Amino acid sequence: MAKLACVFPGQGSQSVGMGLDLEQGNDTARDTFSKIDAAAGRSLSQLCFQGPEEALKRTINTQPTILAVSLAAWAAYQKAGGPRPDFVAGHSLGEFSALCAAGVLSLEDTVRLVEKRASLMESCPKGAMTAVLGMSAEALEAVCHEVSQALLAEGSPAGGTDHVVLVANFNTREQLVISGNPEAVTRAGALVKERGGKAIPLPVGGAFHSPLMSGAAQEFAQTLKNCQFAPAAFTVVQNFDAQGSKEPQVLKEKLGRQMESAVRWTGTVEYMAANGVDTIVEIGPGKVLAGLVKKIDRQIKVFNIYDQASLTETVAALALSEKPALA
């Protein structure tokens, strides 16, 4: 039987003005923005609507503002009678939106957790990330291993992070991201080019989803311990292992490991497809995930909800489904 998934974007989907059309044209979205601002203790909505762009690019602002737009769009989708999903998932940061949508986390706790996560990730040791195109995951993992071993042989301390470079994002089969120590990432990027791939350094200052995040991940895990997780209303497919669960303790444990583990987005989409998903709705700013889904599985129907017009069009298109509307 055909099933529906709703997915939520992560860092990189932000733009000045995101969410403004929803805030102006949808009472539910407007109320949600107000609740999020109150929970954050600052006006995330104004950062979304007005920027400036330089402020919006900072991790400490990027993550909570993308969350704000995603949750406002989700609330509007619910109110508009959008069909109930069988699965939810999010790309990195987007996993928090997915957990909130599934009722695992309250809106207030979700906002506070993302504010904490963004602060920790912005203050992490210097790192680098590079997008890699035209190379398989297996070949890229071999490149990373080769560079790491070479740096260790040259005298990088075995217990340190100078040699660290690994695949951090499995976005599609041939759209990957490496993360780690700046020198290690640079050397791996050069080797990628030598072997026929394309390496594009990303404008980030941290080595997200790598062992360089371990200190921040440990502190964040302590924060999670004091946070109440409820059973999920629908299956949440998590980045850590691209597997689904509704169990609070399972969801909490994997979320605590996410920051220093790879984002397995290809596996996430393949897991949902293998479990009957034929339609995916991306909810939140931008169209990044919709593009990735199309590259992973062209058989899946994809929709976006990012403003009032796309909300109306998507709910109307999904109305042909026999799934019950969300309460």
What report would you give on this structure?
The protein is of the alpha/beta class and 327 residues long. It folds into two domains: 227 residues, Malonyl-Coenzyme A Acyl Carrier Protein, domain 2 (3-Layer(aba) Sandwich); 79 residues, Alpha-Beta Plaits (2-Layer Sandwich), CATH 3.30.70.250. 49% of the residues lie in helices and 16% in strands. It contains 14 helices and ten strands. The strands form two sheets. A six-stranded mixed β-sheet has the order 8-7-2-1-9-10, with helices on both faces. Strands 4-5-3-6 form a four-stranded antiparallel β-sheet. Strand 4 and strand 5 form a beta hairpin. Helix 5 runs antiparallel to helix 7. The radius of gyration is 19 Å and the shape is globular. The two termini are 22 Å apart. The model has no long low-confidence stretch (mean pLDDT 94).
Write the layout of secondary structure elements.
Elements: E1 3-8, H1 20-25, H2 27-40, H3 44-50, H4 53-57, H5 59-79, E2 87-90, H6 94-101, H7 107-122, E3 128-133, H8 137-153, E4 165-172, E5 175-180, H9 182-194, E6 198-201, H10 214-225, E7 235-237, E8 244-245, H11 248-258, H12 265-274, E9 277-283, H13 288-296, E10 301-305, H14 308-318
Parallel strand pairs: 1-2, 1-9, 2-7, 9-10
Antiparallel strand pairs: 3-5, 3-6, 4-5, 7-8
Helix pairs in contact: 2-5, 2-7, 3-5, 5-6, 5-7, 6-7, 7-10, 8-9, 10-11
List keywords for this structure.
single chain, 327 residues, alpha/beta, globular, 4-stranded antiparallel beta sheet, Alpha-Beta Plaits, Malonyl-Coenzyme A Acyl Carrier Protein, domain 2, 14 helices, 2 domains
